[in-house]
Specification:
The protein contains two helices and no strands. The chain has 76 residues and is mainly α.
Length: 76
């Protein structure tokens, strides 16, 4: 899962791809869970905010990897 702090040894493109795959899963699961929520729980907004936090963490992680690898910015 995405973490807020990373060790230098984890700053690789392989780790980036793995985290991106996990984030993609989270993005796809959240609407499916909402569709199956028969009780219209208020926790959905918390889950949405948590997903946004994961996305921001992923962006930071991605930037750190590119910097560690000596690449100034991500490809477009």
């Amino acid at each position: 899962m995405l973490q807020r702090f990373w060790k230098i040894s984890n700053l690789t493109f392989a780790e980036l791809e793995e985290n991106e795959a996990e984030l993609t899963k989270l993005r796809s699961w959240l609407p499916k869970i909402r569709d199956r929520d028969l009780f219209d729980t208020p926790k959905y907004s918390q889950a949405t905010e948590a997903l946004k936090a994961c996305e921001l963490d992923f962006q930071l992680f991605s930037q750190q990897i590119y910097q560690t690898q000596g690449i100034d910015s991500e490809p477009v």
